[in-house]
Amino acid sequence: MVAKLHLPQNKVSRLICWVIAIILALLTPGFSEMINCFILALVIVLLPQIRSRSLQRPWIGLLTIAVVAAAVATLAPGNFVRSASYQHVDLLHSVVLSAASLGYSFIGWFSSGILILLTLLVLPALQRLVNDPALPITRFTRIVWFWPLWMLLGLAFCYLFSYLAIDGPPPSRARNLIMPLLIIGWFMSIAGILSYLLRRGATPLQRLPTYVRLGMSLLVLLLVLSDQNITLKRSRIGQPTNSVTQAYRDWLSGDAAQYNREEEARYTLIRQTLADSVVIPPLSVQPVTLVWWDISENPAMWGNRAYADYFHKKAIWVKL
């Protein structure tokens, strides 16, 4: 599939495309270990083409760069320091727990109805796109199993890696990174299925009536704005179970901006303090999609020590 993709014919445009691709391959793995799990999944899915030598060398080189960058980011010493603070379980137990947690996450992702409604809304448009041979998406969806396998393997690796590292599912901020990859994999999988059905002579889908599309769009908007408080607990009001919804809540409420201002004020205080020990004020807000843990009032905690080392200080702690 990748081997059949065509870059622009103009040499300058081709060079720009390759430079951008190499930069992305180098930098993207550093954002999160979750992305690296999907890179590993991509390698596995492309193995048949790599072994048969049908994948062109430039693409193999680009994939190699991404794999090396992912390995460097994943094997960073800080990851092992954090992992060492957890009580680990055996591999089989981690596999079972990660599979159960991933299944539960799938229920959460799809039970809200947002993804299903969006899929129904875009089905006719996707069908038109995959039926146009001039568009890249047509070549991307030639192999019907490629995207579903990549998506499922990537998700499975994310959850297994998380259980092996921290004995639990990925935190909210990690799931926020997983969600766009899930959406890409999901819609490309749907596009691949549509392409396959069209090639098999299936009847093209008809466009939904305007009033149906409008009603479904309004329902999607309402679901996005809802906190999806499925437990009906008063203490959970305004705290969405959907991490994407929570991310928008953190952004639009101003909590994310307030958190950023307070962190910047902390950094300024630390840099302007000449002493080796610094006491910083607590955070008034901790958006759940941005903050996993804050440093504590105990300067001996590993998080505090790492924080102090980063700023070249002996000790930094929060004054509560």
TrEMBL record:
Membrane-spanning residues: 20-47, 59-81, 101-123, 144-166, 178-198
Superkingdom of source: Bacteria
Alphabetically ordered keywords of this record: Membrane, Transmembrane, Transmembrane helix
Pfam family, one: DUF6056
Protein name as it appears in the record: DUF6056 family protein
Organism: Hymenobacter aerilatus
